[in-house]
Design goal:
Blueprint (H helix, E strand, L loop, with lengths): L4 H15 L5 H4 L4 H18 L1 H7 L4 H25 L6 H29 L8 H20 L3 H28 L1
Helix pairs in contact: 1-6, 3-5, 3-6, 5-8, 6-7, 7-8
């Protein structure tokens, strides 16, 4: 399940190469169960690191709950996607889809963290406008990878993206409310 720093950097570079059209997803990642666990671990760790920025404003007491919630939402998404693909007879394509999808999410988190840090450090809020084209590019790739790897419609691909957002929102709001009430 662990991933070495060199493998992490290699997969980030491979994700960017894939997004630039220079590499296929199959050539970019270790499309195995071990590769899946590495992608899950990397996604969770990056989420934990990136969340340090807002935790300074929210308060550190929420951080352990955030870590658990983010792991549960990530694992829930992975499991639900697997069962959805099983239902539509595309389960054999699960790893071919999930690994690039998770690594695209990691790139997204790193990029948005960079924009947030630059905006905060410089005090120039306009830097956050860079997130708009980046968001469009990432959403395009998340939908494209679903269509390309699974052979599904745009509607289904968008549904997978929306499903991840809904899971994270429901668990995040529930965790936040339980934290606020305690």
């Amino acid at each position: 399940m662990n991933i070495s720093p060199s493998a992490f950097i290699r997969y980030l570079q491979a994700t960017i190469q894939m997004m630039l059209g220079k590499q296929t997803p199959e050539a970019s990642f270790d499309i195995t169960e071990d590769g899946l666990w590495q992608a899950i671990f990397a996604s969770w760790i990056i989420s934990a690191i990136v969340s340090i920025i807002p935790m300074q404003a929210i308060g550190w007491k929420f951080y352990p709950l955030f870590l658990v919630t983010s792991l549960v939402s990530l694992l829930s998404f992975v499991i639900l996607v697997y069962y959805f693909l099983l239902r539509i007879d595309k389960a054999p394509l699960f790893l071919r889809f999930m690994l690039p999808y998770l690594w695209l999410s990691v790139v997204q988190m790193i990029f948005f963290a960079g924009i947030t840090i630059i905006s905060s450090a410089t005090g120039v809020v306009e830097f956050s406008l860079l997130s708009i084209p980046a968001l469009i590019w990432i959403v395009y790739w998340l939908i494209r990878i679903a269509r390309q790897q699974l052979g599904v419609t745009r509607f289904v691909a968008f549904g997978l993206l929306a499903g991840k957002f809904i899971i994270e929102t429901i668990l995040g709001v529930t965790a936040g409310m339980s934290f606020a009430l305690s």
